[in-house]
Structures are given as structure tokens and as C-alpha cells.
Specification:
The chain is an alpha/beta fold and 431 residues long. It contains 14 helices and 16 strands. Bound molecules: zinc ion (ZN).
Length: 431
Amino acid sequence: MIGSVLAGVRTRQRAALCLGLLTCITAQTASAADCPGHPDALGTSRTLVVDPREHPRIGSMQYAETLPLGDHEVVLTFDDGPLPRNSNQVLDILASQCVKATFFTIGRMAQAYPEGVRKLRDAGHSIGTHTQNHPLSMNRMPVEPARQEIDDGIASVKAALGDDAALAPFFRIPGLSRADGVEDYLASQGIQIWSADFPADDWRHISSSRVYDIAMKRLEDKGRGILLLHDIQARTVAALPRILHELKARGYRIVHVVPATSERPATPTEPQQWQLHPPSETVAISHWPKIPNFVFAGADTLPAPSLSDSDWHDGRLVPPAEPFDRARRLARGVPLPREAPWPRQSPLALDSAIALPVPAESIFDIQEKPRTAPRGLAPSSHHAEQTIPTGRETDGLARLISADAGDSSRVIPGSLPVVETGLQRVPVGAR
Ligand SMILES: [Zn+2]
């Protein structure tokens, strides 16, 4: 059902069609100035229409492809809601800046707070799903219960919306715990899996100013990308106004992503625009002497990690927070000149030669001390056995999701032993 709305036309055909349609151009040039009462708003610079069937897995943290963004373009995503207490504030902040985002909602939260899901729709945001119960074991789960989690989450959010078309075929796996069976099933349903390009660690017990620092640092490193945030977190609510203000001040532009439909063709793009973002020339120069014959990220790219303030904690060097950070290091790596400039090698061919990490299973699930589960909920990530929550229990679910999804008291997942033992290396292109 969810994939049935997608156009059956191929991208190149759409491109030709789209170029001739004024509506297509209009859809991609929504003006940031159109924010009544807020002339200085960040705004949403354009709408990107994507076809999940053509690009089933995106996000450079885990996959070969990510959204075809230009330099200084940012896509905001929020997970785990809705939780009215904080999600409503996130909506107000986004509305004040006329910023459109994508929300990955949880089925149980939608059941408990259907009004919260409808508010997302009414505000014009894209709505995806994030399973029914937010299990952090999708990578270990048999296919059948994993499918059930996906299907139930979609059904719950659709029921809250009362309108199937209002739900985008976008999905984010809890904890980014990818698995072949999960990915294959979602692809068969025409649902696009969204990993991310960088998180802001807002699920950890860190200050809102730290969330801001991490978000801006990682964005500056990449120059563009999909930012992963959580609308259920108070620290995210506190950090968001400053993040949006700084995005505007630094010249970043917000891109709103929506799914293609039979009436709304995908934005014309070239395949290489979906490949891992090349390092910007500015970043490369800042770390290494400029090299002629600049070649974008490929198999002959050497990682050149640089130390920064986020790499230090209490005077000790701490590796980046993500153990899945090879893509980030590659992205700011130093490209080497090719031995011969011809024949040109396609980016697709290059990608088959490199491997991308996926997060360790424990990335969102490491605990150093026992934690008391909220009443009515299991003390682990196995929410699947729980009954439909009352409002109080769902609040507990939010806390548990928050706790399961991160805890500042945990071992920093990026510590070297975790990096070396926790990664699964997956051939790019196979994912
Ligand atoms: Zn989540």
C-alpha cells in the first residue's frame, strides 16, 4: 500500500517530464523568505522529491548512498516521538523558523498520542516510521517479528493520521541496527531506509550546549547532510533554537524531503549525486596541501582524521563518538591523484571496492550500571512484549527509549576496542 503511490516512471523519464512542468520547478524552489511574521527566519530553501524504490537505503553513516544535497544543505530528522511535552516545543521552534523536517515516529507513541502525529502532518513535515515498539534488536531478530514491528508501526501511525497518503514510505531502524532481512523486506515494500550522515548524540546524558556543539562540529566537517535528532528529548528542545540560528548565520540551507508520487515526480538527479559526499575543497585544504586533479571519494582515498575539541574529554584523547565513523573520516580524507586521468572510473564502480561500517550492535545499547525500568516496561530493549501503553506508561516508554538509545554513563562507543570488535564491514553496494 505504502509503495503504491510511487510513480512507476524511471528517474530519467521523470527528468524530461519534470523539466517541462512549472509545478515541478515550483516544488523545488520554496522560498526561505515565505515565513510570515518572521522575516529573518531560516526557512526551507527547497523541497527534494525522492523515489524510495530507486534509492532504498540512504545515509552515509551506513550506506553507499545518501541524499543528493548540495554544499551547505541540511536535512533535519527527529526520532522517537511524538511525546507532546517536548515534541510540541520542537514543532513550535521549527514553525518559528518555517523549517520543514522529517519525523520518524514510533507506533506506540502514535497510539498514545495520535494528536501529536496529526500535528506533524498539519505543520507540513514529512512523517516516516520507526517500528511499533522501538526494539534495539532488529539486527538479531528473526525476520517475521521484525516485519511485524515494521508493519505494526506503520499501521499505528496511519491510524493516527486517518490518511494513508500522509505517511511517507520512510523508515529508520531503531539504533540503526540494520540487518539484511529487515532491509530486504523494507525494499520489497517500497520503503526507504534512512540512516543518517551524522548524529548530535542528543540521546546521551549531555548538556544541550554539548548537543549544539556536536551538531555544528559534525556538520562543519561534512558541509552538508542528514542530521539525526530526537524530538522527545528536552536537551534537543533546548539546543534547537541555537542550532537553527547558527545554521542561518553560517549560510546553511534547509532541504525538505518528500516521497515521489504519481502526481509528484522525483527531483531529477544524477547517480553520482547520491554517492558519498566528497570532501569540500575547503575542508581538504584545511587538513592537507591542495592536490591537483581533485578526485572525489573513492577507493583511492586515504583517511586523514583530524583532532578537534570533540575528540578530547577531560584532557584525554577520545575517538569520535561514533564507532561507525569510517565514512566521516573518508569524507574528509585526502584524495590522491590517479595514476592516469583516463579512462574515467565511475563512482559506482569505485564503491564496490570499499567497505562501510555499520554501528556496533551495542552502539545504542551499552549500559554500565543497572537501570530500573519504568513501570509496566521490561528492563531491556524488548518492548515488543508490552501491552499498549497508557499515557503514563508511554511517558515511561519515552524515557526508556531515551535511556536505551544512549546514556552518558556508558562506555563511549567510539573507544578503540569497540571500533575494532564491534563493526561489521559490509561491502558498499550490497547494502
Ligand atoms: Zn529511536
